[in-house]
Write a structure and sequence with these properties.
This protein is an alpha+beta fold. Helix content is 28%, strand content 24%. The strands form five sheets. A three-stranded antiparallel sheet has the order 2-3-4, with no helix packed on it. Strands 1-5 form a two-stranded parallel sheet. The protein has a two-stranded antiparallel sheet with strand order 6-11. The radius of gyration is 18 Å and the shape is globular. 11% of the residues are buried.
């Protein structure tokens, strides 16, 4: 597991109050209030000056390698509302095909084609919001339950839809 942080442009109040301080060794200090702060150690802090394609490449290259080696991969965007998760992933209609999600899908299928690999790609997309897990490929379904298979020691989401995606075009239509 690797943790990366992308910090959006801060407004004047945030900058003046030094709400986020970045240590050059991958440590973040975040002021939660005037008296309280939290410290985080991360693997990589993505610079605000990085181009979109550099961010996507940094985030996705190991995930794609993992899938090509026959393993599962997961990209998680986490944070408060308004911090840029949807923007970074490219999930709003105005950014379709320009975010990390479309970069990962396109790169994965490009690699499969380049190496003339056989196999199939199954895709699931879900959201965790306010302790509810929703299957984004089944918007009318009930909240999903997190389960553990004792025999395999595997954690899974009961009734999560998995779709076979034969191409990047079809994957990005979801």
């Amino acid at each position: 597991i690797q943790t990366m942080v992308r910090i959006r442009e801060m407004n004047r109040i945030e900058t003046d109050s030094r709400i986020v301080e970045i240590n050059p060794f991958g440590a973040l200090k975040v002021k939660k209030s005037f008296y309280e702060e939290a410290n985080f150690k991360v693997d990589q802090i993505l610079s605000k000056s990085l181009k979109e394609c550099e961010i996507h490449s940094s985030l996705c290259s190991s995930l794609i390698d993992n899938v090509l080696n026959g393993n599962n991969s997961c990209l998680i965007a986490y944070g408060q509302s308004g911090t840029g998760k949807t923007h970074t992933l490219g999930l709003q209609p105005s950014r379709a095909r320009s975010g990390t999600f479309s970069y990962a899908i396109t790169s994965l299928f490009d690699c499969l084609e380049k190496h003339q690999s056989e196999g199939s790609i199954l895709m699931s997309v879900f959201q965790i919001y306010l302790d509810e897990v929703d299957d984004l490929l089944n918007p009318h379904g009930k909240s999903l339950k997190i389960r553990e298979d004792i025999s395999s020691n595997e954690i899974f989401l009961k009734n999560l839809i998995k779709v076979d995606v034969p191409s990047s075009t079809e994957a990005l239509e979801f």
